[in-house]
Amino acid sequence: MNALSTKPILLTKTVLMAGIAAWMSIAVFNNATDPGTNRYLLGLMLEMTLLQDEPNGLGAGLLWRAWSSEVAPPLLWGIVAVQIAIALYLWRGALTFGAAAFSGDRVALEDARRTCIRALTAFMTLWIFFLCGGLWFGYWMKQGAVQMVHMTLLIMSVLFIGFMADRRGERPEEA
């Protein structure tokens, strides 16, 4: 028997990492095959169009921060490049963690855990960047659903990092 079959928590962590890697890969695929949607949303945010159209002057004091929507296409492709790197890093974490868990090699498992935590930290950083960028452009006032996705992913990232760092249930004496 291998460590993966005797320690269900290791399987759970492997599946979680693979699931996050798959989610990020799908996000990359969606951004690459339907760039128009995100270019449009980025353009609205960067130009602050929704705030300019606000009849009650909501966010009017922030409008000096607006950028041209011409920045949206290169920004989107920059984001896609970062997302590709993060997706690959997450896959690396998932595969190395699963292989180490299967082998039962404690040193390999700790190395893989560090890889997973670094990959998840990159994932978390992406959502912090989106939240800060969105706050700069006032997207929370008119694009609350987008902000909630970013906030949810940030919260999930923190929880994933904590789960991957937690070693309880992995040691033989805890079987």
Automatic annotation (TrEMBL):
<dbReference type="InterPro" id="IPR018681">
    <property type="entry name" value="DUF2165_transmembrane"/>
</dbReference>
<dbReference type="Pfam" id="PF09933">
    <property type="entry name" value="DUF2165"/>
</dbReference>
<feature type="transmembrane region" description="Helical">
    <location>
        <begin position="145"/>
        <end position="165"/>
    </location>
</feature>
<keyword id="KW-1133">Transmembrane helix</keyword>
<feature type="transmembrane region" description="Helical">
    <location>
        <begin position="75"/>
        <end position="95"/>
    </location>
</feature>
<feature type="transmembrane region" description="Helical">
    <location>
        <begin position="9"/>
        <end position="29"/>
    </location>
</feature>
<feature type="transmembrane region" description="Helical">
    <location>
        <begin position="116"/>
        <end position="139"/>
    </location>
</feature>
<keyword id="KW-0472">Membrane</keyword>
<keyword id="KW-0812">Transmembrane</keyword>
<protein>
    <recommendedName>
        <fullName>DUF2165 domain-containing protein</fullName>
    </recommendedName>
</protein>
